[in-house]
Each structure stands twice: as structure tokens, then as C-alpha cells.
Amino acid sequence: MLHVVPASLIASLALAIPAHAQSGAGHDSAYVRVFDNCTSYQAEDEPVHFSDCAGYGDWTVHIVAGEHGAAVAYSRRGKETQWGENPPRVAVFQDLGQVMEWRLDASGVPFATIYRSIFTGFEPGEGGQYLTVSALRPDGEVGACHVAYVEAAQQPGANQIARDVADYLAPDWQCGTEAPIVFDLDSQMDVLTIAAQRRPGH
Fold this sequence. Notes:
The protein has helices at residues 7-12, 79-83, 158-168, 191-198, and strands at residues 28-33, 38-42, 49-54, 60-65, 70-73, 93-96, 99-104, 110-120, 127-136, 144-151, 181-183. The chain is an alpha+beta fold. Keywords: Signal.
């Protein structure tokens, strides 16, 4: 069945949801409780559930979930390709947070999303959390792709790191060519350093 983390647990895991969260110039955030408005169905003869959920604006969030995890897509264009991308699996079970953050440009158009995956295992203390940052491609052959995975259980400021990834890396990320980056306590470079190196002439 679809694993959905209760809102009370999200709060206890310190998923900060301010009314407005700004990072890059002119950028803002909107927050959508993804599972509040979904159409769901189950695959025949398989313990797999599919959900089409209302996202931000005209976007639809397509979720596939099984007994041990779930994957997210933002368009039927290249849906299976999007479902094939997942954060590092640090335990056997994966739950999705109820709230998804949508990063908006100065015109209010969404260009990236951030959602939380919570991993748990059979033993107490086994697991972890990652924030997945996706770049939206409304006109692309594939509707979205993963840009980065931000470790969020131990890393201070994980929410802000994820917003910086969305603002400074997602807009010109080469979907299908560049592999997602993992940001954790062992990362050698921060988001702004990587963004500076990606600018022409560097």
C-alpha cells in the first residue's frame, strides 16, 4: 500500500514550512499537500498502487508505490524515466512526506520541486532522510529530472541547501545527461561553489 507520513510526524521531523521561503533573487515557494487530492488505483495482480495527485497550478504529481517504497513523476512524458530516479536507499522502507515545496520564479511559475523521503528499517534507529530536488521541464521530452539529494537527518540547514539547489542548479540542469548530486556531511563543495563552476568561462 501507499506509505504516507502523517502530518504530526512531519512536524516532529522538523520539516520547516514557512509562509514564504526565499533564496535566489525573486524566487519564492508554494507548498502543496500532495495526498489531499488524488485519484488512485491498484495494478492487477501486483501490490503496486498508482496515484495521480494535484500539484501546483496545472502540474500533476504521478506517484507509484509498492510495499517498500515510492517514486514520483511530474508528467506523463517520460514518466517511467522519472520513476527510475530515486534518492540513496539507506533502509528497506521509504515513505514520502505529505508536503511538497514548489520553487517559483519571479513570475510565479514553478521550475523545481523539493520533497522529503523518510527511510526506516526493521531495527530502531535504522534509516535516514533525503530531500529530493527535481527540475521541471514543461516542454521537455521528459517532464522532470532529479538534480540533487540532500541528506536531511543529520545535516544542518538541509531545507535551505535544497532551496539553493533548486534556485542555482535546477534552471539549467541538463536532464538525461547530468547525474544527480548528493549533498551530505561528506560533501567537498557547497551548492554555490558548484553553481559558480558551471557558469560559462569557468
